[in-house]
Amino acid sequence: MGFRQDFIWGVATSSYQIEGAAAEDGKGPSIWDVYSHTPGRVFEGHTGDIACDHYHRYREDVALMAKLGVKAYRFSLSWPRIFPEGKGEVNEKGLAFYSDLVDELLSHGITPYITLYHWDQPYSLYRQGGWLNPESPNWFAEYAGTVARRLGDRVKHYITFNEPQVFIGLAFVDGVHAPGYRLPRKETLLMAHHVLLAHGMAAQAIRAAVPDAKVGYAPTSNVPVPASDKAEDIRASERAYFEMPENGDWSWNVAWWSDPVLLGHYPEDGLRILEPDLPRFGPNDLKTIAQPLDFYGQNIYRGVPTRAKDGGWEEVAHAPGSPKTAIGWHVDFDCLYWGVKFLYNRYHTPVIITENGMSATDWPSLDGQIHDASRIDYLHRHLLGLRRAASEGAEIAGYFEWSFMDNFEWNRGYSDRFGLVYVDYETQKRIPKDSFHWYAQVIRENGANL
Ligand code: FCB
């Protein structure tokens, strides 16, 4: 069995990483605008001020997507482009940009998948406490409802949050993403709870405005990949994926971020281990958080070889010289296979891979083309794993390659290239890479050529 006939082949991007026009047409600043302009935070002082200038070039970009043949495009909205202050008055010009982008996509037969939050929080809300403020779920729900009311006649697919592990964990536990400082665990757990509430309330607001909306959520994970095909290593890996580490290092725990949303309760082990720092939960909070979802998005790039040990598990070091991508991430070709299998076993909700892809040291060769053979091989092997998981019964609705084009890779600036399309940031010239042509063929054949 291959990919289902209605499989959604897509590509993904996010607002701050590609749009540019950071202070144009009334857009307010986001935490990433401020952070990238703070000396020492981003590689070589890069910012998203111009990025891929997609704000002005979206027609050209959508035409390329049409050439690629994607069925769907996942992009995020810049919240402060729509609400410069995060709430209150809508900035009509900002909303008009997204409305025009949606029309352009639809005129090419490409289905828009909107991510509401891909990390660029309005700076004004951050100054009011951001996700620590108990009002923050209301702010987000109001924004989500406005977007759904204004675009919902044409946009039916919504993703509330992208990778809360990163915009709470990397931002406030590790302090290396905007706004970039470390807070005590008590505070970060409170933020996480507000984010989950915001997710549930936004899902309600979207459905109230667009009854036929399809709503999902897109956390991320590094997948424990069984180090052998022994049953005990497989079991140990699945446990390692979901169990809370005894040291209370919670921010990458899959169950903490997904059980409340999909099962309607926080995981028992997490409640026990984190007990001293837990927020006070409201009586209806979990009911609000656990809105029925149409799909469970998951961003997966990496695996961690894992094996059974003493009734528990341990990570196994990657072999010396084993494959790595340009960003320095180890490659485990089976991470999609195991990830989707484990996630579907636990949550029984159709999975969409909302991101997967790799950074490479791409540059134009003498012939002017970008020969990114390693990316083709990476995608090929990951898609084989995804297909295998589908053939063994996991319900997989789609796959969004990250990314449509090279872009601003957060604190690493423009030093990492993840795109299927090469971007020359000096001239803004786009060059489809070899992987672009390869992926176009995969889409045309619905993966039968893999
Ligand atoms: C994910 C992010 C995305 C991009 C890729 C490489 O964590 O969601 O914006 O940076 O990694």
How would you explain this protein's 3D organization?
- There is one protein chain.
- This protein is of the alpha/beta class.
- It contains 16 helices and 12 strands.
- It has helices at residues 15-18, 31-36, 54-68, 79-82, 92-107, 123-127, 136-151, 164-173, 185-209, 231-242, 254-262, 268-273, 285-289, 335-347, 373-391, 434-444, and strands at residues 8-12, 72-76, 111-117, 157-162, 214-218, 220-226, 295-309, 312-315, 351-355, 396-402, 421-424, 429-432.
- The chain has an 8-stranded parallel β-barrel, surrounded by 5 helices.
- Helix 8 runs antiparallel to helix 9 (185-209).
- The longest helix is centred in the middle third of the chain and has 25 residues, at 185-209.
- The protein is globular, with a radius of gyration of 21 Å.
- The two termini are 13 Å apart.
- The mean pLDDT is 98.
- The site of beta-D-fucopyranose has 12 residues, from loops.
